[in-house]
Structures are given as C-alpha cells and as structure tokens.
Design a protein that fits this description.
Helices cover 76% and strands 0% of the residues. The protein is mainly alpha-helical and 319 residues long. The chain has 2 domains: 66 residues; 230 residues, Orthogonal Bundle (MetI-like fold). The longest helix is centred in the first third of the chain and has 34 residues.
C-alpha cells in the first residue's frame, strides 16, 4: 500500500477514533467521582491534550531556545551573553535589525495609511464590492507567490521587468531595484504593503460602516466640510480599529522573512532578523547565535502582543 494512502487513512480515521476514545475514557474515569467533583475535573481533562501539545510544541521549544542562546555553537559550553553581544556588535546583524525597524515603520504606516484612504474613497463609489475585491486580491496569495511575481516586476532586464520597461520607455537607464541599497529594502517593503493594504482596507471599511450616518449628516448640516468630518469624527471613531490593525501589521513586519528570502535571500543589505537567524543556523552552523536572534525577535514581539491583549480586554470591559 502507498505510504501516502496509509498516512491519509490514519489522519482521516485514526484521529477522530482517538478523539472519541479519549472522550469515552474521560467519562469512564469520572464515574466514581461525585457530580460536583466531576464538574470541576472535567474541563481540565478535556483541555489536557491541547495543553500537552502546547507544552511539547511551544513552551518546551521556547525555553530550550532561550537555553541554547547562552551556549556555544554546538550547545555544549556555556558562553553567557557572548551571542547577544555578537548580535549588537556585528555589522551584518545590525543591518538586519535596522531593516526590521524600517519594515516596522514603513509597512505599518504604508499599509494602514493606504488602507484607511482606500476605505474612505471606495465607500463612495458605485461598484464598492468589486473595487474592494480587486484591492483585497493580493491578500489571497502567499508571501512566496507575491515575492516571485514582484521579482519579475523588479527584473533589471526591460524585456521581462515591468518597472524597468516603463523606466526605459522614457529614455532613462534601467534601475537595479533589488541590488541597490537602500532602495532594495524599500522595494521589498512595497511588496508587503501591496499585500497588506487590502486587509487594512476591509477591516477599516467595516469600522467605517458602523459609524452612524446621522452623526455624519448632522456635522455636514452644521457646516463642516469633508476634511473636518473625517478629522473630527471619522478618524477618532476609527482609532481603536486602527490600533488593532497596526499591532497586527507590526507583528507581520517583525516576522518578515518570506519576501526577503525569495527575492534577495538577504543579499545587498536587505537581510532581516528572521533571515539572519536562518543563515546563522543552517549556513554558519551557529546554533547559539541563531537562538539569540530568535530570542531577541521574540522579545520584540511580546510588547506588541501585550498591547493588543490589553486593548481587547478594555473593549470587553466596555461591553
């Protein structure tokens, strides 16, 4: 029998069977206990498999990565903060840190700003659904696919590079979009903005629809122009939505990897922290340094996640 068929059969039949068997065992184990005791124990027994998977595949790897970040390249000898000192003193890692900051700033402001602009504009067009679908379409593809498409767009040869075909049609020389620093970093960020703008637009458009039309009409009747309506009413009411979208995009910016790996592989000073981590691990065999990069990246994401959680809790408290 083909191994793929056997694997598919295990997944389709084995997993549901194991789930049903676990439920039966849990209920059988709870029978000797009283009703009140069983009610207290049952939720933890139901959560046990998920908690076990969480510990094995998330908590343990995280703690082990932190441990390895204080070890040498083979994870044998303790080296203290040497890997972290290397990260903040090496030119290559500092370039990756700088590029992540650029991604964070320009991807967040670019995608959220364009998303807000488009959400306001398409709210007034006749074919709103069609326009939104076209703008949201890039979000449906993976970062790898987008990287491949835009690699052709940025190709130096005018015969295959769309942008250079437009540039040379004006009589100018072709531009090395992907090998000229720092232009290449902004070229990569543009690809991510192209993908994330549709996401921001759809969420902000939904928030815009929730604003009372009576409130907007009352402001216009009182003599407010469209810019004043936007600045004084629409924008303040959309701030909670903008904050949530911004934190999501910030996390995407900090974890940027796919586009850089596909389009430049971090060459020509386009490296980001995730790409640097992969190179330290697989190209240089530096397990300790790779773990240190992963820990720093993890620590950079935590404040953003905590801010997002805090905002959700505040919204739940208002409700």
């Amino acid at each position: 029998m083909d191994d793929r068929i056997l694997t598919a059969a295990i997944v389709v039949l084995g997993v549901p069977a194991a789930l049903v068997g676990y439920i039966v065992l849990v209920e059988a184990a709870l029978r000797p206990f009283g009703t009140r005791t069983a009610q207290r124990i049952r939720p933890w027994l139901w959560l046990a498999p998920a908690l076990a998977l969480l510990v094995v595949f998330l908590v343990y790897p995280t703690l082990d990565t932190v441990r390895r970040s204080f070890m040498d390249r083979f994870s044998e000898d303790f080296v203290g903060l040497a890997n972290y000192i290397y990260f903040f003193t090496d030119q290559g890692t500092l370039i990756s840190l700088r590029n992540n900051v650029l991604w964070l700033i320009f991807l967040t402001f670019g995608s959220v700003g364009l998303g807000l602009l488009l959400a306001v504009l398409v709210d007034r067009v006749r074919y709103e659904t069609l326009v939104k679908s076209v703008i949201f379409l890039p979000m449906a593809m993976s970062f790898v696919a987008a990287g491949v498409i835009w690699r052709f767009m940025y190709d130096f040869r005018p015969q295959s590079g769309t942008l250079n075909a437009a540039v040379t049609s004006t009589g100018a020389d072709p531009i090395a979009w992907l090998s000229t620093a720092p232009l290449n970093t902004f070229a990569l960020i543009t690809v991510a903005i192209w993908m994330q703008t549709g996401f921001a637009m759809v969420i902000l458009s939904a928030g815009l629809k929730s604003i009372s039309t009576e409130l907007l009409e009352a402001a216009r009747v009182d003599g407010a122009n469209e810019w004043q309506v936007f600045r004084k009413i629409i924008f303040p009411l959309l701030l909670p939505t903008i904050a949530v979208i911004s934190t999501t995009v910030i996390i995407i910016a900090l974890k940027a990897f796919d586009i850089v790996y596909v389009m430049t592989n971090g060459n020509f000073e386009t490296e980001v922290m995730a790409n640097r981590m992969i190179k330290e691990l697989f190209n240089f065999g530096q397990f300790g340094r790779a773990s240190a990069v992963a820990v720093i990246l993890f620590l950079a994401i935590i404040p953003v996640m905590l801010f997002n959680i805090k905002r959700f809790q505040e919204q739940e408290a208002i409700r």
